[in-house]
Fold this sequence. Notes:
Blueprint: E1 2-3, E2 14-18, E3 24-27, H1 32-38, E4 45-47, E5 52-55, H2 61-68, E6 74-76, H3 78-81, H4 86-91, H5 108-116, H6 121-138, H7 147-160, H8 165-182, H9 206-214, H10 219-231, H11 235-239, E7 246-247, E8 252-255, E9 264-267, H12 270-283, H13 301-315, H14 323-336, H15 341-348, H16 353-356, H17 364-367
Parallel strand pairs: 1-6, 2-6
Antiparallel strand pairs: 2-3, 3-5, 4-5, 7-8, 8-9
Helix pairs in contact: 5-6, 6-8, 7-8, 9-13, 10-12, 10-14
Amino acid sequence: MIYFPSEEKDINGIAISKDSLGTIAVTFPYNPSLVQKVKTIPSHKWHPKEKYWSFPNSDGTLEKIFEAFKGEEIHLAPELQAKLSIPSLAKRGEGRFSDKKLSATPFDDLKRELLSRKYSYKTVKGYLYYNRDFLNFIRKEPSGINDSDIKDYLLHLAEERQSATSTLNQAINALKFYYGSMLKKKFVYEVRRPRKDKKLPIVLSKEEVAKILSSVDNIKHRAMLMLAYSAGLRVGEIVRLKIEDIDSERMLIHIKGSKGRKDRYTLLSEMALQTLRGYWRQYKPDKWLFEGARAGRYISTRTVDKILEHACERADIKKDVSVHTLRHSFATHLLEGGTDLRYIQELLGHQSSKTTEIYTHVSTKSIGKIKSPLDTLNLKKGGD
């Protein structure tokens, strides 16, 4: 899918813009598959310091880039839109387009409203994404949207994309905010929300966590993963940490403006602190504790995801693990160690104790003491 334009600072898909020399610049989070695709485009050039690929800004180059990344999520900068032939791409199936061009700056009003209400960056990004994705799917201007269009899109998410309930709920919230709260259309309120899936979190054993951390040689990467587990941090909290957030005297980490725009304190592990000190001596970060490739920016959450993914491969962990799994494991291991659930709730920053109670269902503290009835049977051995 293709979005016109994209102004977000963190882009999960492929961003196409102009560099300082006027050539076409292509950037995307590291992905071996995408690297292979970009190398099929003639005249490609990699800039290792700035971390982007460049191409001559000549006729036909954009079309070749779109052909190579067919089916991928593409964000095109406004200054390049005039060079792109939308009808010709639509005929070749290069995404969803309408014959009627959308406004030059779609959803600026939505973005301003969300920011004025102090919505988090992640929420703003999500609401913009689903509203743009909806228009790309339905191929209409916002003024022409009707109730049937909303239902068709949600059905597409549920059945064709197999989206999780949380994804569907976020899409509903995004559409409801724009078409309901801002455009005062009432049909959005008729959409029935799907029931939330009651899934238990995946939890690693302490031995599995140790194997993952031991498999990471890069001290910066190890420090990030150690903080995720030792303090129960979300991936967005890890990347936005600043140096002053680490309170080594009180052995606390100050998490600012997290989910729900709340601040909290959580644990600073002695082992994690020693790793952080070694990391600081080697990297000398300035503003952000974990700086990204771009000057003045923190590392992307996608990069942290990839770091953990590669660590799990080296550690031969077969479970479906994400950075949030380390947070789940932190809470579960504290509970199994005897920490009161109320303290765990505070460390995780949960607003409701019901959210924290899910860890009682995955902890072996009580379940592990129960003896299976099979083990009480006096069975004869096979062949006896």
